[in-house]
Amino acid sequence: MSETLIVDGIVVTMDATRRVIEHGAVAIRDDRIVEVGDTAALRPRYPAAAIIDADRHVVMPGLIDGHAHAGHGLVKTLGGGDGEAWYKACHTFYTVGSDEQFWRAEARLSALERLKCGVTTGVSLLGGGDSVYRTDDPRYGIAHADAVDDVGIRAFVAIGPCRPPYPRTYATLDRSGRRDAQIGFEQHLATIETLLRDRHRKKTGRIHFSTSMPVHSDEVDDWTRANAELIRSQSKVVRELGKRYGATFTQDGHKRGSLAIAYEFGLLGPDAYMSHNIDLTERDMAVVKETDTRIVHNPSAVMSIRGRCPVPELIDMGVTVALGSDGTAPDRSFDMFRHMFQCMHYHRRHFRDADILPPGKVLEMVTIDAARALGLEREVGSLEPGKKADIVLVDMVKPHLYPLNMPVYRLVCFANGADVDTVMVDGKVLMRKRRVLSVDEMTVLDEAQQATEDALARTGLGHLTRTPERFWGVSRY
Fold it and tell me: Do the domains 63-373 and 3-61+383-436 match in fold?
């Protein structure tokens, strides 16, 4: 049994009363919090505990990123401002251009970035673009999951079949060369079940898998319209498979009318968290409320330029709304402080009202509300006895964070990921004084660089790293 006592911090608990304790302490035994209170009261009760001095630091729950994409860490900014080229590059990388090392290196890079930004739990879909998952073979999901586990943070890895029609060409890349295969729905399904059976909450318990399906809306092509019943039956199979293993469900890219369609397909519910959700209809919002489905808003994403997620309206209806980075490509990061600030100002600008989304509400959206969205509210999201010791210390000894009053305002309005000093997950210190202890940073960076260069070389997409002609001196690409 090991004990740790964090002392003399500004403890932002995010508990039911949202206590902020000026000279606070958090007592940890093994992987769980056992007591939260005043330093003067807790110190005598834990005489043998290892001490972490949090003087002039905020002590808070680890941040939670409700939506992002595996693979994106190695393709960010490709194509410059050419969104179509970027989407095509994602399709190529994620189907025929990536080997196991690509997914391992990207996962370690992304988990490292999250860790250094104070994100202790993050969702990553195993791919991206237009619902292109690397689920032709379990080896890629295993490589991703094990790499994140090495870094030490929690993860939800979303896996599902690619967007139909099937089959889709995938390539296995190894020393013997490239071998192409035509992958259909049944093979995707077999991969999903293997990962759920062998990796979901196994080993350390930090890695969860979620099932997923492509989003379908009224803006569909002829194939989708003609095969609605097939999509419905496949949705049912994937949803029931996830439930059999106790997995949550997510979808990427909801927009006008698509949540109502997901409702008809039986995909909504309190174990479902849906991302983007722009320009929702009244029916969309009604079925979300009715089914207690959780919403993940990505204020920095391209979809939030094309439309708006009605976050204040959903919150007022009693819907649980979390924040996601949608990171890290084409142009985002895993810095959830950045996305909190973006969220506030995005909706205030829409309503022309500076009273929209108080900082406290936005902080809830990356802590306790995000934990609720993922079904983890009894485990993480606040500093309370019995919960996992997923804890972040933010160094407040910075000009942009002084004076040391109104700490929640300082966190949401002024802090950034580089202010995170110490990160603990499951009671284990993964970073102290900005030094990562779980992995060697330079090794992770070197592996990511090499994996990217290899993927660009094998796909012939190196030209997408060049600066586009319309980059300087003009008002738009």
Answer: no
Predicted TM-score (pTM) of the model is 0.97
What is the rounded CA–CA span in Å between residue 301 and residue 329? 9
pLDDT, one tens digit per residue, over 404-458 is 999 999 999 999 999 999 999 999 999 999 999 999 999 999 999 999 999 999 9
Distance, CA of 458 to CA of 472 (rounded, Å): 30
Is 30 strand, coil or helix? coil
**Rounded CA separation 381/323 (Å):** 13
Which pairing describes strands 3-12 and 50-53: parallel, antiparallel, or unpaired?
parallel
Residue given tokens 């300082």 in the structure block: 410
The three-class DSSP label of residue 7 is: strand
CATH architecture of the domain covering 63-373: Alpha-Beta Barrel (3.20)
User: What Cα–Cα distance (Å) separates residue 432 from each residue in 36, 53, 115, 181, 235?
Assistant: 21, 11, 11, 46, 44
Cα 393 from chain centroid? 20
In this structure, CATH architecture of domain 3-61+383-436: Roll (2.30)
Q: Tell me: the pLDDT tens digits for 174-220?
A: 888 999 999 999 999 999 999 999 999 998 999 999 999 999 887 66
